[in-house]
Design a protein that fits this description.
Blueprint: E1 3-7, H1 11-23, E2 27-31, H2 39-42, E3 47-50, H3 59-66, E4 74-78, H4 83-91, E5 96-99, H5 104-121, E6 126-128, E7 131-134, E8 139-142, E9 145-146, H6 151-162, E10 168-169, H7 170-176, H8 186-200, E11 206-209, E12 213-216
Parallel strand pairs: 1-2, 1-3, 3-4, 4-5
Antiparallel strand pairs: 6-7, 7-8, 8-9, 10-12, 11-12
Helix pairs in contact: 6-8
Length: 221
Amino acid sequence: MSVVLLIEDDEALGGQVVDQLEAAGFEVVWWRTGRLIDAADYRDIALVILDLMLPGVAGLEILKHLRRDSEVPVLVLSARQDSRDKVLALRLGADDYVTKPFWPEELIERVRARLRRFVMERSSQVRLGGLLIDGAKREVSIEGVCLELTRVEMDLLLALAHRLGDPVSRRWLLTNVLDPEKEATERTLDVHVSRLRKKLGDGSVIETVWGIGYRLRKGAE
């Protein structure tokens, strides 16, 4: 069972989030005041949900300290809607930013998406002929030459590599790979796939599975 650390001082909101997470199958540790997260604290934690306006240590300071030693996913939950706050949180290492008020169902799906992406990024290396995909380093190379991929292209390739040989639906890719803050349409997805195929070369291992989505072809040479 995945353990989620919730740092939120609002009793009513915190209780609601805890109930929703537990109903979704997560184990929750709830801190009601801000304090730095030490190595002993985050060893078993799969994801952190962090408020910014906290008594004690401020949320951004907690985030900054955490990122010195850990890459555990952090989802910021804040009433601050100023774009400057969001940009700062993302620059300090937050993986997502949700503004209050929010739909509990959306929060749960964002938590699930971040946990899936975290697992994909740490998956073992996948080698297909001269193509090497290193999820841990977020590096892709062909015959030893590193490719320059965008964040979306990298996430897309990792998602397909995680389910090597199996089709991944367009709906899943739209929800879990494209940026939820921007327009996520099938046309946008197709554009990203087309650009990724060009970077991978004429012998691209990405196949279209008609009526479903895409897959990464096994046994590519």
